[in-house]
Design goal:
Blueprint (H helix, E strand, L loop, with lengths): L9 E6 L4 H15 L3 E8 L12 H19 L3 E7 L8 H14 L3 E5 L9 H17 L20 E5 L6 E3 L6 H10 L32 E6 L2 E6 L20
Parallel strand pairs: 1-2, 1-4, 2-3, 4-5
Antiparallel strand pairs: 6-7, 7-8
Length: 258
């Protein structure tokens, strides 16, 4: 992509947890889906630790969060969701994880990839850093080089990508605005990820997550598209679907989700 207004035919979104796609780039994803892009989502962990409710088991939480993710993906217009099901808080920069991401890239043959910014400053979930770092490495050089994971050759899986996209990036970029999301879509997404979005004063009885949703509050829905050119390549980043307030320490960017 050499222009942020160019319509990418195929997009791959790689996130560490259920709920990260919609909270990180939901407005941008919805915009491109509505304009005809084919979008696939890869969720790297099973989200089995993302709750403050002591009554829910990890197995129950996995089932709930995957169901919520599928509903949210449908609202956004994502065509396919793949769950890698690594343990929550367990992503590592290793060959097993990298091979699975390379496989997804080669299956979907994306023109652009959305993922986490591994260099995001201040407090950041370790899974987010690992997801971003491994995905960037998977894009280049692994997915490009046909002799990387040669077992894929027998399946006819070869192909690199043209651009990368990092959520919550600190890069200095130019901006274009997305098509605003309808209120019905916003409500559907919030309802779909109920276990992760509850009132800040609510107890665990209000939802499975039972956690403060400060990081999801205080901003408007939608995300913007920003791009930084580097030579012949263009690197793009979405903002968060909700623009939250400052983090719990009163300064710096908001805490990321888990």
């Amino acid at each position: 992509m050499t222009d942020t207004n160019e319509q990418p035919p195929r997009i791959l979104v790689v996130t560490p947890h259920p709920d990260d796609a919609e909270s990180g780039a939901g407005g941008t994803i919805a915009r491109f889906a509505a304009q005809g892009s084919s979008i696939a989502l890869v969720v790297c962990t099973n989200g089995d630790k993302g709750t403050s409710n002591g009554e829910v088991t990890p197995a129950q939480l996995v089932e709930i969060r995957e169901g919520e993710q599928l509903k949210a993906a449908e609202v956004l217009g994502i065509e396919r969701v793949s769950f890698l099901r690594f343990p929550d808080q367990g992503l590592e920069d290793n060959d097993d994880f990298r091979e699975k991401v390379v496989r997804e890239i080669r299956i979907h043959k994306p023109d652009i990839v959305f993922t986490m910014d591994p260099n995001h400053l201040y407090i950041n979930h370790r899974d987010h850093r690992m997801c971003g770092r491994v995905t960037l490495d998977a894009i280049f050089p692994y997915a490009r080089d046909h002799l990387a994971y040669p077992q894929h050759l027998a399946e006819g899986l070869t192909r690199s990508v043209r651009s990368t996209c990092g959520a919550a990036s600190s890069q200095t970029c130019s901006w274009t605005s997305p098509t605003p999301m309808r209120r019905s879509s916003k409500r559907s997404i919030v309802t779909g990820v109920r276990s992760e979005i509850v009132p800040a004063t609510a107890t665990s009885a209000a939802g499975v997550g039972g956690r403060s949703a400060t990081r999801r509050r205080g901003g408007r829905w939608g995300s913007s598209w920003r791009s930084r050119s580097s030579g012949s390549r263009s690197f793009a980043s979405p903002t968060r679907i909700l623009r939250p307030r400052r983090n719990a320490y009163g300064r710096g960017p908001p805490l990321t989700g888990c």
